[in-house]
Design a protein that fits this description.
Length: 253
């Protein structure tokens, strides 16, 4: 099972997965072996040296690779998948049509898959995004702040109050879903890993999968990740005593 750790330092996100290191930050002075440039979280360019100007980019992922990985081949693997996923990304001329040695294909594919999965988890799509119908918008109001919403989903139970626009309070005594959902191949998905990270952060407030104090979350989705591994529309899970959902209280029509 692949694991990764994260730290936040000086307005940058530092991620380590196996022997690979990646830092996501604003465009500026970075160090690394491969630099991925984004505009509004969409991948635009891959480089081997950092750009000297901001250009049209607003964020960069600086990747440091271990000595056993050749950065040219890893970048070529990136390009292979971007092309497959119908993304147009500017890349160094040296990797265009670069043939990856068969002896390295497996390891490079694994490294690329891990890095892309992390980027996707943090909101950087690595495939062409198909337009979808707009999701329903929700707006906090004074009425909803007075309501206690019950949760009963996938083995989890609890009570939550959306007390402020960015504060959703889960009252102590909530039961967390115990069984972790797995991918079809039996592996642990990154969403499940993110749940485990959240629970580890709040471990002092959890005993035998039960919260021992109130916990505050920023959104319905964040609460759902923590409590029941998400995997459903949380706006329809939280219900008042009469069965009215939090969606009905707050959806913008």
């Amino acid at each position: 099972m692949t694991t990764f750790t994260t730290t936040i330092e000086k307005e940058q996100l530092n991620i380590t997965s196996d022997n690979l290191k990646m830092t996501i930050s604003g465009v500026g002075s970075e160090t690394g072996d491969i630099f991925l440039y984004f505009k509004e979280k969409k991948i635009q360019e891959a480089r081997f040296t950092p750009t000297e100007t901001d250009g049209d980019y607003d964020q960069v992922a600086a990747i440091t690779v271990p000595f056993e990985i050749e950065k040219n081949y890893l970048a070529a693997q990136f390009q292979k998948i971007w092309t497959k996923n119908k993304l147009t990304v500017e890349v160094p001329a040296t990797i265009v049509d670069l043939e990856i040695p068969k002896s390295q294909q497996k390891d490079l594919a694994k490294a690329q898959k891990n890095l892309f999965a992390i980027l996707i988890l943090f909101g950087y799509p690595m495939a062409k995004v198909q337009k979808k119908p707009a999701k329903a918008a929700h707006r906090w109001n004074q009425e909803v702040a007075k309501v206690e919403f019950s949760i009963d989903w996938n083995g989890s139970t609890g009570t939550a109050i959306w007390e402020k626009r960015d504060q959703l309070r889960l009252l102590k005594g909530a039961k967390l879903t115990r069984e972790m959902p797995l991918n079809k191949d039996g592996s642990v998905g990154y969403s499940a890993k993110f749940t485990e990270m959240m629970r580890e952060k709040e471990k002092d407030a959890i005993e035998d999968f039960t919260t021992t104090q109130d916990l505050v979350f920023k959104s319905v989705n964040e609460l759902g990740i923590f409590l029941y591994y998400a995997n459903t529309n949380g706006w329809l899970v939280l219900k008042d005593a009469d069965g009215k959902t939090i969606d009905e209280y707050t959806v913008v029509k």
